[in-house]
Structures are given as C-alpha cells and as structure tokens.
Design brief:
alpha+beta, 4-stranded antiparallel sheet, elongated
Length: about 375
C-alpha cells in the first residue's frame, strides 16, 4: 500500500490548513512590506511640508474715514407756476422726464393777453405822439409848463402799461429755470390755473448732492473740500465719489447733528433724490492701516474671507478671518483680523488648509506696501 493511501482523512485536512496558513502569512507580509514602502516614500513630503511664500503685513498711512449716513437729494430744487390766471392750453414734460434751462413746459390760452398788449401798444403810440407835439409847442412857448409835464407823465404811464401787458403775455408760459428732471407735475390741459400756485417741481440731478448728518463729536474732523465715498445699498452697494461743498455751522437742536452736503457727479442719472446713502468722509487725522496683497485673501467653504498666517514655532499655517477694506494698488486694507507682526501666506495659499505643515520662504516687504506713516 502506498504512503498517500495510508494517511487518514483528518491528517490530510491538517496538512492542507498548514499550507493555506503559510500562503496567507506570506501574502500579508508582502502587503505590509508594500505599505511600509509607500509610507517610507511619503514620509519625506510630510516631513518637509508644503512650500509656501510668506510676507510680513504691510503698513499704509491713510486718512481716517468717518462712517456717516445721508440722504440723496437734488442739488437745486425749483417749484414753478403761472404768474397770471387762465386756461391751460398745453403741458409739455411728464414726471421723470428731463428738461433744459429755458424750455417752455406749459402755457395758457394767451388770446386775451395778446389783445391787451395791442391796446397798450396803441395807447403808448398815442401818448408818444402827444408828448412830441407838447414838447414842440412848449419850446415855442405855445403851452404852459404844467401841460408839458402832464404829457410827459402820460407817456411814462403808457410805457409802463405796455410793459405790464407784455409781461403778462409772457407769463402765460412756464419756462424751466434750470436743467433737471420733472419731479412733480400738477396741471393738465384744459384746467383753470391760478397765479402763484406751483404746478411743476424741477430737480437738478447732475450733479446731485448727498445731505449728511455729522455728530457733534466728529464735526471738528469735517471740512469743505474733503472727499466723500458714497455707497448706495439700493444700487447693490455701488460706490460714488464726491466732495463736501457745505458744512453747517449750527447743529439740529433735537438730533445734535450738523448738516454737511457732498456734491456728486451723476451723468447717468442713477442716483435719485430720496435714496439712502452710507457715507465715508475722509477725516483730518491719519491712521496706520494694515495691508496684504489682494491674492492673499481667500474664501473658505462658507464664503468667509480669510488669510493664512505662518507660525514660525511649529512651521504650520493657520487661517484667520479678516475684514477687508479699500484697495490700494495691488494691496488691500485689512480692517480687522491681523496684527502688525503677522506673517501671511502670499504664495501657495490655495494648497494649504488649517494646520498644514509648510516650508516657508520669507519675501521682503515691497516698498509700495511699506507706505508712509507720517501724518499730514
């Protein structure tokens, strides 16, 4: 009988299990060795860190801005109406339409006034003739001096009546006193108009002005000619630049605020009277502003603006939430979130995340970012 035939079934299962165990152990050892090799290959990268470029925070001497609120209003507003009574014969522009200085915007039926002017002209012609004859006769001593003076008085009266009739005929028309936009129209053709009642309101909107309330504690920092940055929320935060043209000398007794007015160019007419404005007025003092390159500011997954700051102790970077202000060339102002001694990541910032280990190369601060710190 052969050897294979003499091995019992239980013995054969034992030998097979040993062979399977050996294969599994060898396979596991191979996988472990491969993993160790991968870790060994990755270790140098983790040890060195992500290469980044860092730079110190810049400094810029700029004016101190006062945050104020204001209302947009017309630079000039004129309410006009007829000076004489009559029936309205025509009305020109509607509300919201532009008008030019000297443009006729409404008129009355002028037939009666034209006839009165003709009568006055005829009376003037007669008075002129009587005066000329009286003057000649007085020179020839044909009439007494008193009669000559009466003729002169009659001529002056006729001239005044003719001028009045001519003025009333002209007053049957309303002429725009300035270029602007019709804000209100209160008359229609066929209506009876009375003298002295405003029927049109015209507003000059280019340039336009912003009325600003300045608290008593800040009025000393505001002066005519200063720059005003105007942000209008209803126009999706669009910014306009103007100049202060008026600074009030008396405070409102109730609010204890002074009124300042900024003139703003408005060629497209997007600024309209009644809009609410947020105003930043350039104050007299100067402050030291912190700046970083615009590309150093990134947004996280929630859309929050942040800057990565390098910690030289543990060679890692950490995100700091920042409040970004105005732009100055390639730099942007950081209103809050950073300190003057921070080192910010200006290169490779999109490759790192909170706590990433990095290899930092420190760049020198550009002269433009150093800024002038001396006050005015």
């Amino acid at each position: 009988m052969s050897e294979s035939k003499s091995i019992s079934p239980s013995r054969r299962w034992s030998l097979r299990a040993k062979r399977i165990g050996t294969v599994v152990l060898l396979g596991g050892a191979g996988i472990s060795a491969a993993a160790c090799g991968a870790e060994a290959a990755a270790d140098p990268v983790d040890a060195d860190g992500i290469p980044v470029i860092v730079r110190s925070v810049g400094h810029l001497g700029r004016a101190n801005y006062l945050s104020l609120s204001g209302d947009v209003e017309g630079l000039r507003t004129a309410s006009v109406g007829f000076q004489v009574p009559g029936v309205v014969s025509s009305v020109g522009p509607s509300e919201g339409q532009a008008v030019e200085e000297g443009q006729v915007i409404a008129s009355l039926d002028s037939v009666d006034y034209a006839l009165n002017m003709e009568i006055a002209d005829a009376q003037l012609e007669r008075a002129q003739d009587e005066y000329d004859r009286a003057k000649q006769m007085f020179a020839e001593r044909g009439i007494p001096e008193n009669d000559f003076h009466k003729a002169g008085t009659g001529l002056r009266l006729a001239k005044a009546q003719a001028a009045m009739a001519r003025k009333k005929l002209g007053d049957t028309r309303i002429v725009s006193p300035m270029s602007g936009v019709v804000a209100r129209r209160g008359i229609e053709p066929g209506e009876q108009a009375g003298p002295g009642f405003p029927v049109f309101t015209i507003v000059q909107v280019n340039p336009i002005q912003v009325r600003i309330g300045v608290p008593e504690s800040q009025i000393g920092e505001v002066a005519v000619g200063q720059t005003a940055r105007i942000v209008v929320p209803s126009l999706k935060g669009r910014t306009f630049v103007g100049k202060l043209r008026v600074v009030g000398i008396a405070a409102d007794p109730a609010a204890r605020t002074f009124t300042a007015k900024a003139e703003v160019a408005n060629p497209q007419g997007v600024l309209r009277p009644g809009m609410i404005a947020e105003v930043q007025v350039e104050g007299a003092r100067r402050v030291d502003a912190l700046t970083v390159p615009a590309e150093a500011v990134v947004r996280n997954a929630s859309g929050v603006m942040q800057v990565f700051v390098f910690d030289s102790t543990d060679k890692r970077v950490y995100a700091k939430r920042v409040d970004v202000g105005a732009a100055y060339g390639q730099e942007v102002e950081i209103r809050s979130g950073l300190t003057a001694t921070d080192l910010v990541v200006v290169g490779g910032q999109h490759r790192v995340r909170e706590g990433s280990r990095v290899v930092a190369r420190i760049d020198a601060l550009p002269s433009a970012a150093a800024g002038a710190k001396s006050p005015r």
